[in-house]
Amino acid sequence: MENILRPLIVVGGSVLLTLVIGWATDLLLRRADERHGETPLWDLLRRGRIPYQLVLCAALLRGSYDKARLLGDHRAGIGHILTLVLIGSAAWLVIRIAAAVVETSYTRYAHSRARRDPARVRRVRTQVTLIMRVVAATVGVVAVAAMLLTFPAFRAAGASLLASAGILGIVAGVAAQSTLSNMFAGFQIAFGDMVRIGDTVVVDGQWGTVEEITLTYLTVRTWDERRVTMPVSYFTSKPFENWSRGTPEMTGVVFWHLDHSAPVEAMRDKLRDLLRECPAWDGRAYDLSVTDTTPSTMEVRALMTAKDADDVWTVRVAVRERMIDWLVREHPYALPRVNTANANLPGRPPGPRSSPDGTPNRRAVETPGADRR
Questions:
Q1: Which pTM does this prediction carry?
Q2: Of 31, 123, 153, 270, which has the fewest Cβ atoms less than 10 A away?
Q3: Where are the beta strands (DSSP E) in the chain?
């Protein structure tokens, strides 16, 4: 009877005590979160309740398993497994606690500076993300090393491993040259403020928003919702456009190719009216000028401002479309005209046919022209 009750008391007591302590801790964290709603720390710490209970249960079982006298022939193996579980759950708990503390600090910083300096907030967010990845990788490597050291064979091989560490380091460095360069490039991006999460960039002809930055790759979400994944070393070795660098405000450009008789002053007034009706225009500035001429057309350029890249695209599209529609309805003569001559038929002398009064007979074909992005 004693051989049955002792294992039940030891194992069942450890599990029950783990559940009670875990419940009490979670209750305290929940009440602390209700009292201090201005900080997400307590709610974030609650996410670590599973590794916390694993640590408690593994520690209690590891310390009391010898007294249970259960499966005595496998006592060493079971104790070793409990030790491995304890190391792994402790590393998991450390990562969760570190993530909660870092995320809380970032949230407070973001709330205080989100309106005054959004670019700085994105930079800190990028740095925090990469720092957490480094912390998680470091804790994971230490935990795996600690697990391996619990095996006697690995402890005996430690001296030989240290003796060959120099050669192995050279071989690993040559083999993982591209990986290491990407890792160093990731640190350079994070702390050099080259590109941040949320920035609008143009890389390799692709326009989009930086969605994720890791130590080895960077993901750009394009305007058509595709994801372009590129190695971070690309951003340290090749030029790219960062439209969010500094302030996010931008100036958009729209071109029209029109006839020389186009009413420029009326177009300037119409541009002002169109921008006032467009919510994407931020009201900072606008302009319309003739920037170039050819023998048949002239180039008219319109400038308009917006608060970010998305709005500047919206205002450009709206102005281009509505201005062409207005010209077609009110000033069709302003559209570019392509002069064409009558075809030369067999047996007829070359050259344009003349009207009865002697003037050449030519037709004008009007086609609207505008730049396309």
A1: 0.50
A2: 153
A3: 200-203, 206-213, 217-222, 227-231, 241-242, 250-258, 281-293, 298-306, 337-340, 363-366
